[in-house]
Amino acid sequence: MLKVLVIILVIVSVPLMFLLLKWIGPFLNRMTRTQVIQAIEEFVNGTSKNYDWEDFLNQPIVDPFLDGIRKKCNDISDAYPSGSRNKFCSEEGLQKLRELAIQLRQEEAADNGRPTSRSRHKDGGFRPAQ
Fold first, then answer.
1. CA distance 15 to 58
2. Please, which residues have CB within 8 angstroms of residue 40's CB and are 6 or more apart in sequence?
3. pLDDT tens-digit profile of 42-83?
4. Nearest CA to 44 among 89, 84, 85, 97?
5. Buried (b) or exposed (e) across 4-16, using 16+ Cβ within 10 A?
6. How distant, in Å, are the alpha carbons of 30, 66, 88, 102, 106 from that of 33?
7. In a 3-state reduction of DSSP, which class is residue 29?
8. Confidence grade of residue 27 (pLDDT, cut at 50, 70, 90)
9. C-alpha angle with apex 82: 86 to 31, nearest 5 degrees?
């Protein structure tokens, strides 16, 4: 009887743990704009560690603007498929990621380190570099 109760408890608690982690996850990922830029640049340059890119793409970021950037990066593989299972995207997609990192760096320089939420347009887009 005790074994049955333990098995039932495990069967019920494991999915609940995953749901809890999924709910808590966005509150734990407090990446800054600089860290997002670094993640993109390291991936494009081939200097990221194993699974860093996948972790970046799959873990929501607390800041809605930066999370939108993460989602844009994730969408690049669909918009610019590589044709190979082992590659995230085509060369054109890598170029789009480079451009995105450059755009973020320009915005960061223009803002002089102010928080992202103040530098964002109401429509969620980038402010043009000045």
1. 19
2. 73, 97, 100, 101, 104
3. 999 999 988 999 999 999 998 999 999 999 999 999 999 998
4. 97
5. eeeeeeeeeeeee
6. 10, 7, 22, 12, 11
7. coil
8. low
9. 75
Please state, in angstroms and as integers, the Cα–Cα distance from residue 32 to each residue in 66, 80, 82, 99, 113, following that order. Answer: 8, 26, 29, 18, 10
Q: DSSP of 31-98, one letter per residue?
A: --HHHHHHHHHHHHHT-PPTTHHHHHHHS--SSHHHHHHHHHHHHHHHHS--SSTT-SS-HHHHHHHH
Report domain extents, the chain: 1-30, 31-130
Which amino acid appears at position 109 of this protein? A
Q: In angstroms, rounded to a whole number, what is the distance separating the alpha carbons of residues 56 and 99?
A: 18
Rounded to 10°, the helix 91-111/64-79 angle is 160
* CB crowding 59-86: b at 16 or more within 10 Å, else e: ebbebebbbebbeebeebeeebeeeeee
What's the one-letter identity of residue 47?
T
How far apart CA 33 and CA 69 sit, in angstroms, is 10
